[in-house]
Design brief:
It is built from 4 helices and no strands. The protein is mostly helical and about 110 residues long.
Length: about 110
């Protein structure tokens, strides 16, 4: 299963860690941290939904990179970077590296897809 869905599994794990870090580092989830969680969940969904296109093998990683930049923008626009937000930004960066390194196979071309 990891060979087929590895990139999506990594993105989902990062989304879960982002939510956990937002809640645990300072005891509550602020509005900017909530947006970071929403971006992490959107990243996981986007990585799962975007098909693997042979001529563009970087698309899933590209989705994660674009959303990580959006995550950074939201953090900088808000009231500065708190410890919880810094942890979530680090997780977004690790997510990019993990998604790039994780395996994935396209299900396009299989029966019924």
């Amino acid at each position: 299963m990891f060979r087929t869905y590895g990139k999506a599994v990594v993105a989902l794990a990062i989304a879960l860690l982002t939510a956990l870090a937002a809640a645990l580092t300072d005891g509550h989830v602020t509005a900017p941290e909530g947006v970071q969680i929403a971006i992490a969940v959107t990243t996981a969904g986007g990585v799962w939904l975007v098909p693997i296109v042979p001529q563009y093998p970087w698309t899933k990683t590209g989705i994660a990179m674009l959303l990580a930049v959006l995550n950074l923008a939201v953090t900088l626009i808000s009231d500065g970077i708190t410890l919880a937000e810094a942890v979530n930004l680090a997780l977004a960066g690790l997510g990019i590296l993990g998604i790039a390194a994780a395996p994935a196979r396209s299900l396009i071309g299989r029966a019924g897809l």
